[in-house]
Write a structure and sequence with these properties.
By secondary structure, this protein is of the alpha/beta class. The protein contains 5 helices and 7 strands, in the order E-E-E-H-E-H-E-H-E-H-E-H. The protein starts with 5 loop residues before the first strand and ends with a helix. The protein binds flavin mononucleotide. Residues 33, 35, 38-41, 106-110, 140-143, 145, 174-175, 177 line the site of flavin mononucleotide (FMN). Flavin mononucleotide binds at residues 33, 35, 38-41, 106-110, 140-143, 145, 174-175, 177.
Length: 196
């Protein structure tokens, strides 16, 4: 018979002894690769599976399926974005609703891909509302240089009040579509999702 032991933590949230939280969280996973079923997207799916197995309410959005246009602003920075009728505001609304946000990108030209950067720019108008979130970052690269993308993610959350970085998954040396399958990083993503 499985026995789950709970311990009280200093923030009042009970935690299981396996490290996972007993409190159901809203988890939003933002998958930004243009490659559906590609390496970073597969890691997103594993994170999603882990979060759902732990009883969390988890959802993945695949940016390339959506209409996400570039940020437009007025010269005086007022009325930014208001004239764009696309899917970005819906994603931002989901970010505001979420407790946990996972941001996943392939490494392109030693950086995050344009889809993710464009989405991050579109948060601009409501960044003060994307507050008190726990963030996880997922990156996949043919080589090993994920530093610029990670720095970009960290700089992004610096402007979001009360944000906390909780975990990073780096699938390096992974080039062709699907080669992440069977690699230890898949289990890492599942476990990280399970322990949000
Ligand atoms: C346009 C483009 C640029 C890339 N640039 C890099 C790079 O600078 N460094 C690197 O390690 N891999 C680079 N790659 C390889 C991808 O990072 C790698 O294939 C990754 O696993 C793709 O993830 P995905 O399947 O989630 O899209 C590039 C791939 C593409 C298509």
């Amino acid at each position: 018979m499985a026995i789950t032991v709970f311990t009280a933590s200093c923030n009042g949230q009970s935690r299981k002894t396996d490290g996972s939280s007993s409190q159901s969280k809203k988890v939003l996973i933002i998958s930004s690769s243009p490659s559906k079923g590609g390496n970073s997207d597969l890691l997103c799916d594993e994170f999603l599976r882990g979060a759902k197995d732990a009883g969390h309410e988890a959802e993945k959005v695949f940016l390339n399926d959506l209409d996400i246009q570039f940020l437009r602003i007025k010269d005086d920075y007022t009325d930014r974005n208001l004239e764009i009728n696309d899917d970005a505001p819906k994603v931002v609304a989901k970010m505001i609703e979420a407790d946990v946000i996972v941001m996943a990108t392939p490494i392109y030209n030693d950086n995050m891909c344009g889809q993710m950067k464009t989405m991050m720019d579109r948060v601009f108008e409501r960044e003060s509302e994307v507050k008190n979130k726990e963030f996880y970052f997922i990156m996949t690269a043919g080589g090993s240089n994920t530093g610029c993308a990670l720095l970009g993610f960290r700089n992004f959350i610096r402007y979001l009040p009360g944000s906390k970085e909780k975990g990073v998954i780096q699938g390096t040396g992974i080039h062709l579509k699907g080669t992440v399958k069977g690699k230890p990083v898949m289990k890492e993503a599942y476990e990280m999702g399970k322990n949000v």
